[in-house]
Write a structure and sequence with these properties.
This protein is an alpha+beta fold. About 25% of the residues lie in helices and about 30% in strands. The chain has 3 helices and 14 strands. It has helices at about 5-10, 15-40, 160-170; strands at about 45-50, 65, 65-70, 75, 90, 95-100, 105-110, 120-125, 130, 145, 150-155, 170-180, 185-190, 195-200. Strands 3-1-12-13-14 form a 5-stranded antiparallel β-sheet. Strands 7-6-8 form a 3-stranded antiparallel β-sheet, with no helix packed on it. A two-stranded antiparallel ribbon has the order 2-11. A hairpin with a 2-residue loop joins strand 13 (about 185-190) and strand 14 (about 195-200). The chain is globular and about 60 Å long.
Length: about 200
């Protein structure tokens, strides 16, 4: 029997197993923190308008729910190319450009990441969404309800209600930074154009 086989038969020391698990957990956590910091530091910044949320859906805990007027619901007619023939669960890529007021507007939607020829555009990747095939009654030009992982913003306890009031009054905007892979992170939350919260890198 090989030395490795004998090692496996003897079993792994509980202390060694604990050390290995600890290294893996710390490494994973460190990678996640570094990835987030890299997006906040190096990502392309865009400003998004928030939209009202159903007032019956109260704030839960110490976070505010965010819905975005320009990207949370997108017209299916903007999808480039042919509509899928079969039902498919896929992420979508949004091409965003700043409008006259500085907030981002959706210019195109695609199944693949655009080539990136427009220097003014930012390419944002959604979470997977169901696109219904040609024979489904919901196919084609229907609103696509999209999520991006930036629909919650954690705030100090007791401060969420005022932010929700400002959000529902159309006074709240959010600056997000987007990586080259289309992943977003919230960088700043603003009310009436003034920064209320800014995310640290670490």
């Amino acid at each position: 029997m090989s030395g490795f086989g004998q090692f496996l038969r003897r079993g792994i020391s509980p202390v060694l197993a604990a050390i290995v698990c600890g290294v893996v957990l710390v490494g994973t956590l460190g990678f996640m923190i570094h990835s987030r910091a890299a997006i906040l530091r190096d990502g392309s910044e865009i400003i998004l308008r928030t939209a009202p949320v159903d007032p019956r859906d109260l704030m839960r805990g110490d976070y505010v729910r965010l819905r975005y007027g320009d990207i949370s619901s997108v017209d299916g007619a903007l999808l480039a190319g042919s509509w899928p023939k079969e039902d498919i669960l896929v992420p979508l890529w949004l091409t965003l450009e700043p409008g006259d007021d500085g907030t981002a507007r959706v210019k195109a939607v695609s199944l693949e990441k655009p080539d990136g020829g427009n220097p003014d555009a930012v390419y944002l990747k959604s979470k997977p969404v169901m696109l219904y095939g040609e024979d489904h009654p919901r196919t084609g030009q229907v609103p696509l309800r999209l999520k991006f992982g930036i629909e919650r913003y954690y705030v100090p306890e007791g401060e969420g209600l005022e932010i929700e009031k400002a959000r529902n009054a159309g006074r709240t905007t959010v600056a997000i930074r987007v990586s080259r892979d289309g992943e977003p992170q919230i960088a700043r939350l603003m009310i009436d154009g003034q920064t209320l919260y800014e995310e640290p890198l670490y």
